[in-house]
C-alpha cells in the first residue's frame, strides 16, 4: 500500500543525484551517448555495408581489449539478448548434460531451458536460497557447467573459475549479463562469457554478445555435425559465421550498437576494466556501508564476499520500502524496486560504471530524507 503522503515528499534539490536512473537494466545511458545516435549518421543505413560493419568491428575489438580476452577467443554477437543466448547455448553448446548453479531468477531460467530440452539429459542443479551463493561441483557425465557471475535478481556475486574435477572436455558457460564491463574476470578455463548490453554497457536491449574460447567453437562445430535440428535464428554456426564478418544473422538495432560502442570507448578511455570495476565497487560499497550504519536498513546479502559490486540489495525494517520507492520516483529517482518475485521489503540499486560514488551518496542522502519525512 503506497501512502499518499509518500508521493508528496519533496526531496531538496541539493540532495538529489545528478541522474536519477538506478535501474538494474535497462540502466542509465549517458546523454552524450544518446546524442551520438543522431550525430553518427548510421541510423537508417544498411547493416551489411561498410560503415555499420566498421561499427560492429570496433565493438568486437574494443570488447576484446577491454575484457582482456585471450588470443584465439572470439567475440560473437546476435539478436535476442541473454535470454536468446540461453536457447542458442541449449541447442548449440550443451552436448548431453548441463550442470547449473542457481541462486536467483536468471540462473534458474537458463537451468530450466536445458532441463526441459528433450534431446538432453535432465540437468543437475546446485541451488541456494535467495541472498546466498551456490557454486557448481563436478558431476559425472556433465559436459557444460553454467552459472551467473552476478545474480541480478538478488545482488549476489559468484567467483568465475574452472570447475575442479570436471571432465577435461566440459565447457564453462558464464552469464555475465550484469557484470561484464564492471567486474574483473580471468578467462583461464572459461569457455563462454555472454551478456546483453543494457546493463554495465549502458546500451539498449535486444542483443547478445558472447566471448567464446576455441574449445567452445569446437563444441559448436561438433554439435553442428551431429545432426541436431536447429532453427537458423538459434544457430551458433550461423552466428559465428556472421560475427566473423562483423554482421549479425538478421537486422540488429543500430541504436543499441551505437550506444554499446560509445560505452566501450568510454570505459577504455577511463582506465579500462580495473578502473571501471573499482568505480562500481566504490559506489556499491558506499551503499552497503550506509545500510549497515542505519537502524532501518541492512544489506540483504549477509556474507560480505557474496555482495555484488554492481547490484546492491538493501532490506528495510520499520519503514515500507514501497513508500520510499514512491517518494523517490516522485522526485525523479527511478527503478530501485526489488526483483519482482523476491517479495521482500527491499530496494535494489545498480551501480554500473555509468553511475558514480557521488550519485550513490546522493541516493542514500535522499533515502535518509524520505525515511525521516515518513516517520
Ligand atoms: C538482465 C539479465 C538477463 C536477461 O537479459 P535479457 O537481455 O533481458 O535477455 C540474463 N541474465 C542476467 C544475469 C541478467 O541480469
Question: Features of this protein?
Answer:
375 residues, alpha/beta, seven-stranded mixed beta sheet, three-stranded antiparallel beta sheet, 11 helices, binds pyridoxal-5'-phosphate
Biggest β-sheet description: 7 strands, mixed
| Mean pLDDT across every amino acid position | 97
Number of helices: 11
Poorly predicted spans: none
Silhouette: globular
- Please state how the strands of the largest beta sheet are arranged side by side: 1-9-8-7-4-2-3
Give Rg in angstroms: 21 Å
Question: What small ligands are held by the chains?
Answer: pyridoxal-5'-phosphate
Q: Structural class given helices, strands, pairing?
A: alpha/beta
- Beginning-to-end CA distance, first to last residue: 16 Å
Residue fraction in strands: 5-15%
- Secondary-structure element pattern, one letter each: HHHEHEHEEEEEEEHHHHEEHEH
DSSP helix fraction: 25-40%
Number of strands: 12
Chain-wise SSE layout:
Layout: H1 4-8, H2 31-39, H3 50-67, E1 74-79, H4 81-92, E2 98-102, H5 105-116, E3 124-127, E4 144-148, E5 150-151, E6 156-157, E7 171-175, E8 192-195, E9 207-212, H6 214-224, H7 236-244, H8 254-269, H9 272-293, E10 297-299, E11 311-316, H10 321-330, E12 346-350, H11 357-374
Parallel strand pairs: 2-3, 2-4, 4-7, 7-8
Antiparallel strand pairs: 1-9, 5-6, 8-9, 10-11, 11-12
Helix pairs in contact: 2-8, 3-8, 4-5, 9-11, 10-11
The protein binds pyridoxal-5'-phosphate.
Amino acid at each position: 500500500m503506497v501512502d499518499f503522503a509518500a508521493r508528496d515528499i519533496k526531496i531538496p534539490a541539493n540532495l538529489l543525484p545528478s541522474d536519477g536512473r538506478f535501474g538494474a537494466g535497462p540502466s542509465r545511458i549517458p546523454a552524450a551517448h544518446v546524442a551520438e545516435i543522431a550525430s553518427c549518421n548510421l541510423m537508417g543505413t544498411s547493416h551489411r555495408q561498410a560503415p555499420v560493419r566498421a561499427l560492429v568491428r570496433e565493438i568486437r575489438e574494443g570488447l576484446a581489449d577491454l575484457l582482456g580476452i585471450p588470443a584465439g577467443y572470439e567475440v560473437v554477437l546476435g539478436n535476442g539478448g541473454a535470454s536468446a543466448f540461453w536457447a542458442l547455448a541449449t541447442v548449440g553448446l550443451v552436448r548431453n548434460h548441463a550442470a547449473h548453479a542457481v541462486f536467483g531468477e536468471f540462473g534458474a531460467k537458463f537451468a530450466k531451458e536445458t532441463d526441459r530440452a528433450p534431446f538432453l539429459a535432465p540437468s543437475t542443479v546446485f541451488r541456494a536460497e535467495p541472498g546466498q551463493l551456490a557454486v557448481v561441483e563436478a558431476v559425472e557425465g556433465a559436459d557444460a557447467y553454467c552459472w551467473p557471475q552476478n545474480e541480478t535478481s538478488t545482488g549476489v556475486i559468484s567467483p568465475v573459475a574452472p570447475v575442479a574435477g570436471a571432465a577435461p572436455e566440459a565447457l564453462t558457460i558464464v552469464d555475465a549479463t550484469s557484470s561484464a564491463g564492471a567486474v574483473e574476470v580471468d578467462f583461464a578455463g572459461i569457455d563462454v562469457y555472454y551478456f546483453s548490453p543494457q546493463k554495465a554497457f549502458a546500451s539498449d536491449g535486444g542483443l547478445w554478445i558472447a566471448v567464446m574460447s576455441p574449445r567452445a567453437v569446437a563444441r559448436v562445430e561438433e554439435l553442428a555435425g551431429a545432426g541436431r535440428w536447429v532453427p537458423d535464428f538459434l544457430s551458433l554456426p550461423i552466428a559465428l559465421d556472421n560475427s566473423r564478418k562483423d554482421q549479425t544473422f538478421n537486422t540488429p538495432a543500430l541504436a543499441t550498437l551505437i550506444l554499446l560502442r560509445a560505452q566501450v570507448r568510454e570505459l577504455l578511455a577511463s582506465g579500462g576494466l580495473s578502473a571501471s570495476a573499482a568505480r562500481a565497487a566504490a559506489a556499491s560499497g558506499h551503499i552497503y556501508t550506509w545500510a549497515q550504519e542505519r537502524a532501518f536498513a541492512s544489506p540483504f546479502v549477509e556474507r560480505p564476499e557474496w555482495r555484488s559490486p554492481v547490484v546492491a540489495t538493501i532490506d528495510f525494517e520499520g519503514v515500507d520500502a514501497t513508500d520510499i520507492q514512491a517518494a523517490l520516483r516522485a522526485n525523479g529517482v527511478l527503478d530501485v524496486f526489488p526483483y519482482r518475485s523476491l517479495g521482500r521489503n527491499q530496494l535494489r540499486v545498480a551501480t554500473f560504471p555509468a553511475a558514480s560514488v557521488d550519485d550513490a551518496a546522493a541516493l542514500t542522502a535522499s533515502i535518509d530524507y524520505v525515511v525521516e519525512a515518513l516517520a
